[in-house]
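Below is a filled-in request sheet from our internal design queue. Each sheet records the structural input a requester submitted and the sequence that came back. We keep these sheets so that new team members can see what a complete request looks like end to end.

REQUESTER: design group, bay 2
PRIORITY: normal
MODE: inverse folding
CHAIN LENGTH: 438
BACKBONE (tokenized):
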């Protein structure tokens, strides 16, 4: 039977983050392998950086060592205490005994820390107990004692694997063609509350294909938003390459009451009546008499997929007015028969999230809870909620961010293909895109 840690999920995540994004592999558990320094040294000798966790009452005490356990060697350590979600620490040294030593005590030369596995207790100097915020009771009893090997969550091998996946996705999307050649470029409409990350997503997609971080669309988080105009953005493959077969359409953010995008404009956008650079008026929807109104839009002018964009840090705290607006717009999208998905941004800035979590978002508990919140609040299927980490303040591209961005874009394009495939035969004929029209 597998030996498992006594750490809770929250405790493990707090310690992973605290020590710089580490993966913990359990090497020794006293209740299983014996409260013996001999067993401890046999299992932990030359294993590289380790973290020892001592369980006592309502808190855990630990020792983090960058150096391997080696007999008769004094190693630098960090002595830490985890109480609830707070971590306190102090630096000192620890002398590793020989396996032949009896009873086998780990201690530092000054006698400020003495760990006696045989007697199941730890003695800590009073001044250190006070600094760490521990109860003044010595010795401290050991209920359980575990030692973990500490490795970087994202080692070179994992980064190489993500880079391979990123390059494969990039190649696939570069050769993508809209379903049935019905349109030259699929149109993807980004909708969401002000500051959710719509413009940042466009900038991020462009950055990946350009090969460096770029910011064409203005990004902001003020209450009125930055995107005042309806913008349709084509993206080139590289600086001088061909335009890719998709267009990202950015809109005014959704605000409370009469602020932000006018609900009456949404139907016109979906049906292709609104042209690029149309100036939004939150109090007055566009009408057929407007100079920018497209009277008879073709299939290529219509929206083929809608992406509802949410900030992971605020999606559960949206005002009732915003929630009502989003649900109303979603009903209009469904009425128009347009496939739609949700996009969760800023997941990298959530509490307890490490870079390693972004590779396997389906296994990350905080992200899964956010996906479930979007599902409950707005009715999206979990499979239709995508996760990204946009480029916002970074200067260099990152393969993990690229992987998430490209994975989301691939799902969005598949959704657009579903819409085109479902077009009535009469509209397919109108929309058929001829090679000579390129």
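RETURNED SEQUENCE:
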């Amino acid at each position: 039977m597998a030996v498992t840690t006594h750490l809770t999920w929250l405790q493990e995540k707090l310690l992973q983050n605290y020590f710089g994004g580490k993966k913990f592999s359990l090497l020794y558990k006293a209740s299983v392998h014996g409260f013996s320094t001999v067993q401890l040294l046999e299992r932990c000798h030359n294993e590289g950086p380790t973290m020892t966790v001592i369980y006592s009452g309502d808190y855990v005490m630990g020792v983090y060592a960058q150096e391997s356990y080696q007999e008769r060697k004094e190693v630098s350590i960090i002595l830490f205490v985890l109480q609830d979600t707070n971590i306190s620490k102090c630096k000192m040294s620890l002398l590793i005994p020989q396996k032949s030593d009896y009873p086998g005590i780990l201690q530092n030369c000054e006698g400020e820390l003495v760990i006696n596995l045989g007697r199941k207790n730890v003695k800590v100097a009073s001044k250190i107990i006070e600094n760490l915020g521990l109860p003044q009771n010595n010795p401290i009893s050991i209920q359980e004692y575990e030692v973990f090997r500490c490795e970087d969550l994202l080692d070179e091998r994992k980064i190489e694997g993500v880079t391979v996946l990123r390059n494969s996705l990039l190649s696939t999307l570069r050769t993508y063609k809209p379903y049935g050649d019905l349109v030259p470029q699929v149109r993807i409409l980004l909708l969401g509350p002000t500051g959710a990350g719509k413009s940042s997503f466009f900038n991020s997609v462009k950055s990946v294909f350009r090969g460096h971080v770029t910011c064409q669309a203005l990004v902001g988080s003020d209450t009125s938003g930055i995107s005042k105009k309806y913008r349709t953005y084509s993206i080139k493959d590289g600086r001088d390459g061909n335009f890719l077969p998709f267009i990202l359409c950015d809109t005014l953010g959704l605000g409370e009451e009469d602020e932000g995008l006018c609900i009456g404009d949404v139907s016109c956008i979906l049906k292709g009546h609104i042209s690029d650079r149309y100036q939004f008026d939150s109090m007055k929807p566009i009408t057929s008499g407007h100079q920018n109104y497209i009277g008879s839009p073709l299939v290529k002018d219509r929206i083929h997929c809608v992406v509802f964009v949410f900030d992971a840090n605020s999606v559960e705290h949206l005002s009732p007015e915003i929630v009502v607006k989003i649900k109303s717009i979603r009903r209009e999208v469904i009425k128009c028969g347009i496939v739609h998905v949700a996009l969760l941004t800023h997941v990298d800035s959530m509490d307890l999230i490490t870079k390693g979590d972004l590779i396997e978002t389906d296994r990350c508990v905080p992200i899964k809870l956010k996906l479930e919140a979007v599902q409950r609040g707005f009715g999206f299927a979990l499979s239709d909620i995508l996760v990204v980490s946009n480029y916002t303040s970074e200067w260099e591209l990152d393969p993990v961010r690229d992987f998430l961005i490209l994975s989301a874009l691939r799902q969005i394009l598949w959704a657009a293909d579903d819409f085109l495939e479902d077009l009535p035969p009469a509209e397919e004929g109108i929309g058929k895109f001829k090679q000579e029209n390129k």
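SHEET NOTES:
- Residues 221-226, 434-438 have pLDDT under 50 and may be disordered.
- The CA atoms of residues 203 and 215 lie 5 Å apart.
FILED BY: M.R.
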